[in-house]
Design a protein that fits this description.
With 343 residues, this protein is of the alpha/beta class. It has 13 helices and 14 strands. It has helices spanning 16-26, 42-51, 67-75, 79-82, 105-111, 138-141, 201-204, 234-244, 256-261, 275-286, 289-309, 313-324, 330-338, and strands at residues 3-9, 30-35, 56-59, 86-89, 94-98, 117-124, 144-145, 156-164, 171-172, 177-178, 191-192, 214-216, 224-228, 266-267. Strands 1, 2, 3, 4, 5, 6, 8, 11, 12 and 13 form a ten-stranded mixed sheet that branches. Helix 2 runs antiparallel to helix 11 and helix 8 (234-244) crosses helix 11 (289-309). The chain is globular and about 60 Å long. It starts with a strand and ends in a 5-residue tail after the last helix.
Length: 343
Amino acid sequence: MRVTAVTCVKNEGPFLLEWIAFNRLIGVTDFLFYSNDCSDATDRLLDALAERGIVTHLPNPAQGRNYQMEALKDAARQDLVRDADWVWIADVDEFLNIHIGDHTIPALIEACGNPQAISLQFQFFANDDIEDFQDRPVIEQFTRSHNPDVWCGEMAQEVKTLIRHDFPLHYYGAHRPFFKTKLPKKRRPIWTDGSGRNVPHRFLIAANPRRIRKFPAQGAREFATLNHYALRSLDSYLVKNDRGDVNRENRDFDDTYWRERNDPAWADLSIRRYLPDLKAALEGLKSDPEIRALHDEACNLHRAKRDELLQDPAYQAMRDQLKSASKLPPEEEKMIAALGLTL
């Protein structure tokens, strides 16, 4: 089975090897990376991996700001995607945690009845009060999340989707594929959630713009969950913020994104089942002196960017604000207040 993972990256150098090693463990056979505007050795590390046949690395073709959608349009034309049995579109902070069989993508597909698409729901992992960037597996460090069935007061949660080669594709989206709206009912794809159940009809046909990439999570994770480490360490979150907006002078920082994903109510260690094999696979990649050197350079540049940012009073204030922020998502605080309950 050929499974091609497609992802877009910018300054993800310290985290690339873990993500590649992990996805190889679960059954990904090919990687198509698009990068843009990297300053932390991400692109040079990907080039070195490409020279060794481990990944394919292309510059992001986007001319404007819509980097992901332009890359996905290009990916649909690439042989690496067209010749794959399955396509997995995900980000480097997302890890598919498979609970069934031998914990691989083929086992998940079999458990779901070999449909044409499988949508797996996010579980956002909190920061766990980890301040310093550490060069060790993300899946080992961060172990707490929101209640998997409820996020920010909503039962519906976002998904990413595994897509079989015969899906009646109109175009790839970052969260799910789309088929043409006038496709006859008998040609609509067989599409399940992470428990092998048919996805809700209105999600299937993209009938509701608010539910175009999410549906209720309860009961949808029996076979797999998509662990999303959107925050990582406080250091890494500061660097991540800088990627999108360098100039914060005279602007208030909105901590909503952080608070929505920093709910530590639920302990979940299940993904650690992969750790022994993951660590061995990482050492295998790093046994190549050039790969190890580029990885180490990326980690050092990551720390250097943190140090540079913290010379700016605005980033010092951001760091202090995040450290002291409530661990209840804003929506839950509002509901508690509306019900007259005490925190």
